[in-house]
Amino acid sequence: xxxxxxxxxPNGWKVAIMLEECGLDYETHLLDLGRGDQFAPEFMAISxxxxxxxxxxxxxxxxxVGVFESGAILLYLAxxxxxxxxxxxxxxxxxxxxxxxxVGNQGPMAGQLSHFVNYAPEDQRDYGRMRYRGEYERNLAxxxxxxxxxxxxxxxxxxxxxxxxFPWAFIAKPLTVSLDPFPNVxxxxxxxKERPAxxxxxxxxxxxxxxxxxxxxxxxxxxxxxxxxxxxxxxx
Length: 236
What we know:
The protein is built from nine helices and four strands, in the order βαβαββααααααα. It has helices at residues 10-22, 41-44, 70-81, 89-118, 125-146, 160-170, 183-193, 196-202, 215-232, and strands at residues 2-6, 26-30, 54-57, 65-68. The protein is α+β, with helices and mostly antiparallel strands. The chain folds into two domains: 2-83 and 210-232, Glutaredoxin (3-Layer(aba) Sandwich); 89-199, Glutathione S-transferase Yfyf (Class Pi), Chain A, domain 2, CATH 1.20.1050.
């Protein structure tokens, strides 16, 4: 059994897709991010960055294994199951490159765009939207070029690289970006979206989407962040 700490967001979907694709036995622990569940000490013992997703793998010899950060989780599960990964030296190199590309480029830029589209005060949105929409579209262009001669990021095989990049491309429209200039990405997105495991992952706790936070919730989270920083720095 795997304990899966989750909220229905693009980052949560990455791991949900892999768990569904592999048919692994897991139990979902739904985190209410607006309430600050991610700052609970028992969760931070698994995810010291106070971010979901995270897993606790109990299907191991000895003590359960905790894994945080979506890229690390996908790689861990791929190696655990021997699925959705490339194992030859050059293939593994490319797989690592695209995993690092997603967690270092596409994901953070899309997340910042989401912040300025959905959460930033009105008088602070314009510059942030322009800046991060440009970065988001730049990453779509990188993906568009990569998919110009292949169905999936690493070639003909669907892998964890597709799983990790798909969710932030899936929500392009809510991020106010059209995929019309990126037909290869749109076609790739469509292929992945139709997979039963992907549909199941996206529907996981769909009724609990974190669609935004009111002012009081934002203020509460600011306090929680300060408390977390104090905890990490040992300032009780």
